[in-house]
Design brief:
The chain has 78 residues and is of the alpha+beta class. The protein has one domain: Hypothetical Cytosolic Protein, Chain: A (2-Layer Sandwich). It is 35% helix and 18% strand. The protein is built from three helices and three strands. Strands 2-1-3 form a three-stranded antiparallel beta sheet. Strand 1 (13-17) and strand 2 form a beta hairpin. The longest helix is centred in the last third of the chain and has 12 residues, at 64-75. It is globular, with a radius of gyration of 11 Å. It starts with 12 loop residues before the first strand and ends with a helix.
Length: 78
Amino acid sequence: MACRKVKAKRELIRVVRTYNGDVEVDTSGKKAGRGAYLCRAPECWEVGLKGGRLEYALRVSLTQDNREQLARYGKDLL
């Protein structure tokens, strides 16, 4: 979503907006809700969070807590 590269679904990480409005990382790739995919590069997570692309794709406004949690997850991918 952030780098716009075409990759196999298994190489990407799914972020999902659940029905109750929470945003979380979907490690199984099967949670119900609106999803968006990011690659494993920390740079893509930064672009997705800073540019508002993730919020647009999930059609939700991220809370500060959600934003920090996703940023930590993106940094831990190294």
